[in-house]
Design goal:
The chain is built from 7 helices and 6 strands, in the order ααββααββαβαβα. By secondary structure, the chain is an alpha/beta fold. The strands form 2 sheets. Strands 3-2-5-6 form a 4-stranded parallel β-sheet.
Length: 230
Amino acid sequence: MKLHFLAESWKTIAPQWQDFLKQSLEHELCLIDDKLTKLAQEHTIYPPAKETLRALLNPPSAINVVILGQDPYHGEDEANGLAFAVNPEIKTPPSLRNIFKELINEYNPPLFAPTATLLNSWERQGVLLLNAGLSVIKDQANSLAKIGWHTVTDQIIQHISNSNQHCVFLLWGNFARGKKELIDSTKHLILEAAHPSPLSASRGFFGCNHFKLANQYLASHQIKEINWLE
């Protein structure tokens, strides 16, 4: 598959994802790549090209929890390819601050001060942090929602649902909850709540207990729990 904008990022993803995407979505990815290649001549695209597919670092079989976001952060240098995460030198965005607040509410750790905003420790433990749209134009929220990414990420969600057993899908906000039909609820646990954004966190995200509920479900199926505080 010949790629330009996505070429460097493609090399970093798990071979199993390469095989799946090439077999199922080669045409769609090539069209997206062509659009991004042209857009990048006039706009700054986030995350950087080399991190566009970063969420697919782990093979499908290693994924035990899926957290869905809508699209990448559009502020300067914020997006790094993982939903809700930012690089360490970037100020923690409000939604991520609220995610950390919920963690503190659930676990009440006396010395926990969340600073690992990259969330790569979650990634290493089998958490897929997937945005529905994988690219955005700088300072333009949700600006590339219609270039084809949703077709790709819907297929990714469905593939995990079909090929894995006993995953936990955390759907925060109406957009993420709209993806519920892609997931086989007879095989997996679906947890729904309000989005952690300051506009909605107090209307059902705070107190959702999703991190503990996810671990209880994993443990009940003899799957290693996630250390959310790492």
